[in-house]
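User: Can you write out an input/output pair for a complex, sequences first and structure second?

Assistant: Here is one pair. Inputs:
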Amino acid sequence: MKLHFLSTGIMECDHTWLLLQAGNTIKDRHHKHEPAAWGECPTHAILIETDDGRILWDTGVPRDWESRWAPTGFQDFFPVQEDPAGPGFIDSALADLELTPDDIDILVLSHLHFDHAANAKMFDNGKTRILVQSDEIEGVKTIDGAFKGAHLVSDFDGLNMEAVHGDTEIAPGVSVIFTPGHTWGTMSLRVDLPNDGTKIFTSDAVYMGASWGPPAIGAGIVWDSVGWLESVEKLRRIQEQTGAEVIFGHDSTQRESMKIAPNGFYS
Ligand SMILES: [Zn+2]
């Protein structure tokens, strides 16, 4: 088994979105030079090559973020860095490994937010299975109009999504952990690697190391705060049982310590 950490675009934002601190107010890019917790908010995807096929976890941000996000206003709050020398997007990250979306057997979406599911339609090829937690599929059906919060309906409408229910093994050594709270059906990913040990990818169940604590510290965008806290404690129990390394959804400091594809992988 090989696990690749793919860089799929770096957003910037006021970290108050991710970690509420007393007295902080949320700022947009026009006010980013005023005292604020403005910083990087990187996104990633995980590619796992197994004997049974290739599994991809999440898809990062879209290339057309500025126009696609315009109806929501999020383009001002989460602008994506466009440094030609910087990290690319999911298509270029796969291309760096000489792969295309058609080479992916199973795409698992941690949840359907605009910075995770944005490129899911690239995988609508009649071949890639697209797995989403049942509660997330049901949740987005309640959205009236083009978007609600960070759920952008055009990212996933018409997509053939297969429901998974609760904690589920996707392949030997690869399973999803049901960690709702951030959204209706947010999932985390657990991978048991023969050499590098167990890794847990929390997606937005835990944004960054500072959210994890202990104590766990909540954030601006949480659908259900109590459910969120229960999910963090569930992950903490699994971490304590397995000694897993926990990789957070949007942690720029932790990212610096990761082997980023195509320059390395975990096995
Ligand atoms: Zn996110």
